[in-house]
Design a protein that fits this description.
two-stranded antiparallel sheet; about 100 residues; alpha+beta; about 20% helix
Length: about 100
C-alpha cells in the first residue's frame, strides 16, 4: 500500500515547515540588542520616542522639528555627532 510512504513524506514536510517557521523569527535577543541612548533635539515633529515637555504626553507628541526637550533613542555614542539645522544632538534637554 501507499499509506506508509505517504505518511513519512507528510511527517518530513511538516518537520521542514516547522523548522522554516522557527528560522524566520526575527526578534532580537535582549543580550544582542545594541546599547541605546536618549538623544535630545534630533527628532522630527511627531516622531519623538517620549517626554516632549509641557503639553505633550509621550511618543509621537512633539510639536516641532528638533524640539529640544523631546528625545529619540539612537545607538550609544552617536548622539552628539548627529547634525541638525539647529546644531547637534544632546544627551541633555536643550532649549528649543
Amino acid at each position: 500500500m501507499m499509506t506508509r510512504p505517504l505518511a513519512i513524506a507528510a511527517l518530513a514536510l511538516g518537520a521542514l515547515a516547522a523548522g522554516s517557521a522557527m528560522a524566520q523569527d526575527t526578534k532580537p535577543m535582549p543580550d544582542k540588542m545594541a546599547a541605546m541612548e536618549k538623544c535630545y533635539g534630533v527628532s522630527m515633529a511627531g516622531k519623538n520616542d517620549c517626554a516632549a515637555g509641557p503639553g505633550t504626553t509621550c511618543a509621537g507628541t512633539s510639536k516641532m522639528d528638533y524640539q529640544g526637550n523631546s528625545w529619540k533613542n539612537v545607538p550609544a555614542g552617536t548622539c552628539t555627532s548627529i547634525k541638525t539645522p539647529k546644531g547637534t544632538g544632546s544627551l541633555m534637554p536643550i532649549k528649543s
